[in-house]
Amino acid sequence: MTEPRFAVVAEGLRKRYGGTEALAGLDLRVPAGTVHGLLGPNGAGKTTAVRILTTLARPDAGTARVAGHDVVREAVEVRRRIGLVGQHAAVDEVLGGRQNLVMFGRLHHLGARRARLRADELLERFRLTDAAAKPAGEYSGGMRRRLDLAASMILAPPVLFLDEPTTGLDPRSRGEVWDAIRDLVDGGTTVLLTTQYLEEADRLASGVSVIDQGRVIAEGTPDALKARLGGDRVEVVVDDPGALAAAAEIVGRVATGEVDVDAEALRVGAPVAGRAAALTEAVRALDEAGVAVADIGLRRPTLDEVFLSLTEKKEVAL
Fold it and tell me: Is the dihedral of CA 56, 212, 181, 7 positive or negative?
């Protein structure tokens, strides 16, 4: 059987809980072998979508296929091909890392010998061999989440669902988990990632779908979504509040859109076309006008800004 081009396909998914419409016709396509970010404000429908795609809930309408199988009619086949890591660690804190993985292997009906071999493979893959005998309760946050990822990969599923996998972790631990996710995708795993850290989606995902009010309101690569806010910006920080007006006038000459003035931060910014040329012209004009500059540079919109812009507008053209 030919492997599907898309590891996850959802069309017109709808789900209602009482008087609340959690999903209102959700469409989603996740190319195989990629990380796809699912972003949205609280209550947007992310968790409901993941529950349906992992067969934990049934849609009221619409269809979804994961790894080539229908999530309703072929739920058992879907479960055999997926892994799920939730927001909270699922490992036993008293057991050691190896003991946890062997236990998960036996729960997945692996024989004792095969479960031990698989546990050792995963400990090495997720760089946990040195801590294999240590109780999981003594692991750092990043180590525990890597152990969670290892447990989800006991049967090497082709599709992995990560529901806010780094919530509460410090930056170092988040980086450890990101490295582990990249390694999985390099090995051919498809990852659907929900996260509250937009930097996480920006760093990991090759595609992003933004959900609001139960439907996708925008999708594309992180760079394509950022480009919707006007691309690059020239930003100037001045030393003297009295220089703000002159700086704004000069930046306006190279701008392709509205000039923003932040009097509190003594900052002027505007979208521009032609990165190097615009910056060079602004620097020259500021120098000729005698405007003292504390800082000047080019900046691209962040995914946070894209997210806020999209979710503040309830109707967005796809």
Answer: positive
Token pair for 279: 């910056």
The secondary element (H helix, E strand) that includes residue 302 is: none
* CATH code for the structural domain at 6-226: 3.40.50.300
Indicate whether this model's pTM tops 0.90.
Answer: no
Residues 210/219, Cβ–Cβ less than 8 Å: yes
- For residue 274 the two structure tokens come to 């032609």
Specify the CATH number for 230-300; select among 3.40.50.2000, 3.30.70.100, 3.30.450.20, 2.40.70.10.
3.30.70.100
Q: Where does 221-266 show beta strands of DSSP type E?
A: 233-238, 260-262
CB 286 within 8 A of CB 250: yes
Domain boundaries defined on the chain: 6-226, 230-300
pLDDT for 258-271, tens place per residue? 888 988 889 998 88
> Exposed (0-12), middle (13-18) or buried (19+): which is 288, by Cβ within 10 Å?
exposed
